[in-house]
């Protein structure tokens, strides 16, 4: 059986009472691109961490090139020819590409020899796989797409025959993703094996030869990609029929709720983060902002939510100039009282306090609200009752208001944030990455909720890096690149390639 | 196991078995040290326990020290819940002594007990808070690290107070660097007098009314930190500052207030020392209580109940240790400090020493 690069037999792994992997069987053919797809928390990352030696399996066998092996750490994985490209790059920003690549494989005390050899080897690899990376460029100055290629080079340099990529397209524009896929195909032609972990159905269908589907820690399907279609894969992932299309009736938007005029944001080092932003959001309208992560969307949300002060420009909310208001409390608190709710992009960094129980998270930002606290002390009973209500309305599981929020799944954590913000009955909802790290079942639910809110006449400003999400939810789409708005189109006319071009537009890379 | 990583142990085991194991380990090492210098460890332990808890006077002294440690422990915990490590309890308590002394000197000839006593407490809290305010402001507004600044402020307070006591506040004609005795209307009633009022007779010790104040402070601490809006904001800032900013909390203000509350709590330890026991201010009267507070808070896991228990432990160690050094000439005051240091090391610094072993034991049991 030497035509298999990797074979996993009966892999089990538990963390405490949670079985992250149960009896996993998987075969990866040599020289193929193998997709692993599944919702967040399905156990994909755990499985790959076992293969790469970060975790030890509780039971089961790993065969590499037909031989039983024990992979105790990542050095052993590398020795067996397994390389990994992480979702969050493991690069030293201030080093050059070359320095990064030899990191951990310097070859002796004197750096010079190693560097010389590495340079020659790198040139070869670069040519062979069409990677087009300058070995002397400083990594921190490269774009995300190029940094990813450095990661790939790093793995190849160490002699990887099997390359694991963890959600590689999460940070790329559609064009950059296409480039990556071309590279992956070249790798395959050269006889390398690629394992692609993703939750995007389109990618799996586009590029893989075989696909393994995981759900709830189990392998629920190993199929040839040409034998399945989109709906079939989605159903396998979720375990029931899912509706990928958001049902949304046409609706005439009402008056202008949010109006931004010539907004600029300059940071301390004089870098322009936002340039001349003009936009409007009307009642009963979802305005989507598309763009690759890191092009100013996050800053725009933070400025609008009052967490950052704009350098110049004006923001009008229901006709009122927010810049001329008097602020006795932090701006974010005042804006919230005016009816601007904010679901932040990064829920675990900003939207939640993971060490707090659910019921305490349900008042974050509303801790001074009359409905929450009348006297000097909270009534724990009232807070728990409030949380129970949210749990029922948003189907948060497990339905325990006392549970620490960090123990919930990503989707349920997001529901806690969304429930809290919608409960406040805002007129304007600022929402960033509503479904990042959220499973398909919860995505459906969250999208429905957002459309309901829109239909109830609320204004929604949606920032997302998921084009499909932007296209299916938005009435109007703005595209941001390099801190500017580079284009606008109606939601029903938008296509991925058209948006992709605009997304690359102002980008310096 | 990384610092601050949540334990996989059940909570009850974290709160019982783990501290017990740590304490046992500290005692074992202490035992070895005692044995090396030629004393019988078991006998020493017996003297220590008896000295702390074996007779009325011993218990009185133990509870007196406990009172100090409850306040300084609560002080460290208050700052800790805001994510700040206040090492400056010592200096804050010391400065609080200045507040008390100035107030007493100004008013002990004119004001009656019922006005003077609250005034002195307020002065202690105000001076302690003020001494904490400066590092707090520097941290919140300028990013100077609170650990570094509070340590520096301890040293500044030593020099400042030495000068003030030695040159300005010293009792005229005295050879010792100490102030004059406070008027009796500034004395916190001693426990033996309070209890005598309801017909209970106990031996005469420095234990005084401040002890009840410490217990009340624990209850208030619990209510404020876990049941009030302010405590909610405090804990949010302490666990996730980004979330606090997102929620529209004034992080700077909360940091400064938390440090001031911490300094005020440290200051109350001086009420126990000066108004409750010595009735005058001596040089270095704080004698390390601020530092022990760090260990007390660590060991008590920043919860009032835990703080009371660990304050009791350190109170007993202090008192029993003193008795031990009287009984055994080989065991000097420095040896007693070593024992305390070991307990702090095992219970505070190495609090998770046995966690992995215990965790695997629990896992197998399942």
TrEMBL record, chain A:
GO MF terms, alphabetically ordered: ATP binding; ATP hydrolysis activity
Recorded GO CC terms: plasma membrane
Pfam family, any one: ABC_tran
InterPro entries membership: AAA+_ATPase, ABC_carbohydrate_import_ATPase, ABC_transporter-like_ATP-bd, ABC_transporter-like_CS, P-loop_NTPase
Membrane topology recorded in Swiss-Prot or TrEMBL: Peripheral membrane protein
Source taxonomy: Bacteria, Pseudomonadati, Pseudomonadota, Betaproteobacteria, Neisseriales
Keyword annotations: ATP-binding, Cell membrane, Membrane, Nucleotide-binding, Repeat, Sugar transport, Translocase, Transport
Keyword Repressor annotated: no
SMART domains tied to this protein: AAA (SM00382)
Record domain ABC transporter: where: 6-241, 258-507
Keyword NAD: no
Localization per record: Cell membrane
Protein name as it appears in the record: Nucleoside ABC transporter ATP-binding protein
Predominant place of localization: membrane
UniProt xrefs under SUPFAM superfamilies: P-loop containing nucleoside triphosphate hydrolases
Automatic annotation (TrEMBL), chain B:
Membrane topology, from the record: Multi-pass membrane protein
Cellular component terms per the entry's GO annotation: plasma membrane
Chief location category: membrane
Protein localization: Cell membrane
A Pfam cross-reference name: BPD_transp_2
The entry's keywords: Cell membrane, Membrane, Transmembrane, Transmembrane helix
Transmembrane regions listed in the UniProt entry: 12-38, 58-79, 113-134, 146-166, 209-227, 247-269, 281-299, 305-324, 336-354
A GO molecular-function descriptor: transmembrane transporter activity
Protein name: Nucleoside ABC transporter membrane protein
Organism for this UniProt entry: Paludibacterium purpuratum
């Amino acid at each position: 059986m030497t035509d298999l690069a990797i074979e996993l037999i009966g892999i089990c792994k538990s963390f405490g009472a949670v079985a992250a992997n149960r009896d996993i069987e998987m075969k990866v053919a040599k020289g193929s691109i193998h997709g692993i797809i599944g919702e967040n928390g399905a156990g994909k990352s755990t499985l790959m961490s076992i293969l790469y030696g970060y975790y030890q399996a509780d039971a089961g066998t790993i065969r590499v090139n037909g031989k039983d092996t024990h992979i105790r750490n990542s050095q052993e994985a590398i020795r067996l020819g397994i390389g990994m490209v992480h979702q969050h790059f493991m690069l030293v920003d201030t080093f050059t590409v070359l320095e990064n690549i030899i990191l951990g494989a310097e070859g002796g005390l004197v750096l010079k020899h190693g560097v010389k050899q590495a340079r020659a080897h790198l040139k070869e690899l670069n040519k062979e796989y069409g990677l087009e990376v300058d070995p002397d460029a400083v990594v921190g100055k490269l774009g995300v797409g190029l940094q990813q290629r450095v990661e790939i080079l790093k793995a190849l340099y160490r002699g990887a025959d099997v390359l694991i990529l963890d959600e590689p397209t999460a940070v790329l524009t559609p064009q950059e993703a296409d480039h990556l896929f071309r590279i992956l195909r070249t790798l395959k032609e050269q006889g390398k094996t690629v394992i692609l972990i993703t939750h995007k159905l389109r990618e799996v269908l586009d590029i893989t030869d075989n696909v393994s589907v995981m759900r709830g820690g189990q392998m629920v399907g190993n199929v040839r990609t040409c034998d399945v279609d989109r709906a079939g894969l989605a159903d396998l992932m979720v375990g029931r029929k899912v509706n990928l299309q958001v049902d949304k009736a046409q609706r005439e938007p009402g008056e202008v709720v949010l109006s931004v005029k010539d907004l600029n944001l300059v940071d301390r080092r004089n870098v322009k983060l936002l340039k001349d932003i003009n936009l409007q959001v009307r009642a009963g309208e979802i305005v989507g902002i598309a763009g690759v992560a890191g092009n100013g969307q996050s800053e725009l949300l933070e400025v609008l939510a009052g967490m950052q002060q704009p350098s110049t420009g004006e923001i009008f909310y229901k006709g009122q100039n927010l810049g001329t208001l008097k602020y006795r409390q932090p701006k974010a608190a005042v804006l919230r009282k005016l009816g601007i709710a904010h679901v932040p992009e990064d829920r675990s960094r900003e939207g939640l306090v993971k060490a707090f129980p659910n019921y305490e998270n349900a008042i974050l930002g509303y801790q001074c609200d009359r409905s929450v606290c009348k006297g000097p002390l909270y009534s724990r009973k009232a807070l728990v009752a409030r949380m129970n209500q949210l749990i029922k309305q948003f189907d948060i599981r497990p339905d325990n208001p006392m549970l620490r929020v960090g123990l919930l799944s990503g989707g349920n954590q997001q529901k806690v944030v969304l429930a809290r913000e919608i409960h406040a009955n805002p007129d304007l909802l600022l929402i960033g990455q509503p479904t990042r790290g959220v499973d398909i079942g919860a995505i459906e639910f969250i999208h429905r909720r957002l459309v309901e809110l829109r239909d109830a006449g609320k204004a929604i400003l949606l920032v997302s890096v998921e084009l499909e999400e932007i296209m299916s939810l938005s009435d109007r789409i703005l595209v941001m690149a390099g801190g500017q708005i580079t284009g606008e189109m109606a939601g029903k006319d938008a296509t991925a390639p058209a948006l992709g071009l605009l997304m690359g537009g102002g980008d310096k890379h | 196991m990384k610092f601050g990583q949540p334990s996989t142990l059940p909570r009850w085991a974290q709160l019982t078995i783990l501290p017990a194991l740590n304490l046992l380990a500290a005692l074992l090492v202490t035992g070895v040290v005692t044995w090396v210098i030629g004393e019988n460890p078991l006998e020493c332990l017996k003297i220590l326990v008896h000295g702390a808890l074996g007779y009325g006077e011993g218990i009185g002294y133990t509870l007196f020290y406990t009172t100090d440690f409850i306040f300084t422990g609560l002080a460290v915990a208050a700052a800790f819940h805001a994510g700040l490590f206040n090492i400056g309890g010592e200096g804050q308590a010391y400065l609080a002594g200045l507040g008390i002394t100035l107030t007493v000197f100004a008013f002990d000839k004119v004001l009656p007990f019922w006005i003077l006593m609250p005034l002195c407490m307020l002065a202690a809290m105000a001076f302690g808070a003020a001494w904490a305010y400066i590092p707090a402001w520097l941290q919140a507004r300028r990013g100077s690290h609170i650990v570094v600044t509070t340590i520096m402020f301890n040293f500044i307070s030593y020099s400042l107070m030495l000068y003030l006591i030695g040159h300005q506040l010293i009792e005229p004609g005295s050879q010792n660097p100490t102030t004059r005795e406070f008027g009796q209307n500034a004395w916190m009633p001693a426990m033996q007098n309070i209890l005598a009022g309801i017909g209970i007779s106990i031996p005469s010790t420095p234990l005084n009314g401040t002890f009840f104040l410490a217990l009340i402070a624990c209850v208030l601490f619990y209510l404020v930190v876990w049941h009030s809006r302010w405590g909610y904001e405090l804990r949010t800032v302490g666990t996730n500052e980004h979330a606090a900013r997102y929620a529209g909390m004034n992080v700077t203000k909360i940091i400064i207030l938390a440090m001031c509350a911490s300094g005020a709590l440290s200051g109350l330890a001086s009420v126990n020392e000066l108004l409750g026991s010595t009735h005058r201010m001596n040089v270095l009267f704080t004698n390390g209580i601020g530092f022990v507070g760090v260990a007390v808070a660590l060991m008590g896991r920043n919860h009032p109940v835990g703080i009371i228990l660990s304050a009791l432990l350190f109170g007993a160690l202090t008192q029993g240790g003193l008795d031990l050094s009287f009984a055994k000439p080989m065991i000097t005051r420095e040896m007693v400090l070593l024992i305390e240091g070991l307990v702090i090391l095992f219970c505070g610094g190495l609090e998770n020493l046995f966690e992995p072993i215990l965790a695997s034991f629990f896992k197998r049991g399942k």
